[in-house]
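pinned: reference chain
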Amino acid sequence: MAEPFRIQTLNNISTRGLDRLPRARYEVASDIGRPDALLLRSADMHKMTIPDSVLAVARAGAGTNNIPVPLLSRRGVPVFNTPGANANAVKELVIAAMFLAARNLGPAWQFARGLTGDDAAIDAAVEKGKKDYVGFELPGRTLGVIGLGAIGVAVANSALGLGMNGLGYDPQITVQRAWQLSSSVQQAISLDDLFARSNIISVHVPMNDQTRHLVNEARLKLMPQGGVLLNFARAGIVDDAAVIAALNAGHLHAYVCDFPKNGLKDHPKVMALPHLGASTNEAEENCAVMAADQLRDFLETGNIRNSVNFPEAVLARVPGTARLVIANSNVPNMVGQISTCLATAGVNIADLLNKSRGEYAFTLIDVDGGVDDATVQKIRGIDGVLSARVV
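pinned: its structure tokens
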């Protein structure tokens, strides 16, 4: 019987996820030597030495800023995430944030908590003070959604159910998400177009060099007077100084976000929450299950689903074969060189899949019989092969 796979957990992972890894085939622990894979949530891998035994990394969550993806890519190590597993949790919080902002619920609650005196005095203060918290209703207003992944699509579709107009922008929307998006959600032709047409804007894009300060002074000025900004994606996507200036000038009505900072948390028109986006028991379990399933599929079959650094590569296993799992640079004649190695060793290819993504590619090869260690070593020695193993 084959040696069990060794999985090191860097955070507490939901038992529902860990239960997807059969104990007969997996050893799972927070302290384990020579791990085959790492399973984590928010642990900062940039500060750790990653063993060369690691074949894959899986994060029970969507963002991978805490993982050194470029380093792992060069090693031929896929990094998995769980897009969509927490989509409902984030969607519900975004919808709640719209109501918080539209009805001024945060400031109104603070006002009510600060009332003193007997009930008669409180009643009088309420009648006098409630005019300061007059809000607006959502039907007929336009929600602009930047980024139409699993969360963005769910938010845009839900807005329609509230009687709002939906407007979306995502030049890289996938076919899968396009099918899920309601046909009633209109398409913005550019970010500037979306800002100019939206009363409320919600951002749902990853944090990178292209999205840093995507929400800035120039774009905020395009919004209609009294707009609302929601950010439950990443803090750096929004220029905080520009938002505060727009709030102080009365151009923005409110900013609701998941990222408290000294410049934001005490502003009367800001409601900053303590990073609650995916903080539900259901989302934690969904992410753990999805991460464990993807990790198991890769370790046992070599299939790749939802990797942030390698292409999706899923090949049905040919019965009675051994499978070569190869990560390589996306350069010409790579498959030819690998095939030549197999032919020289007298190994027949039963099926083959080669998929590329940017500068990296992934190759799955089912071969009749087996592949000896010497042949695998020759394949590993090909210039451009990053990793190779047999499952």
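why pinned: The chain has a mean pLDDT of 96. The longest helix spans residues 281-301.
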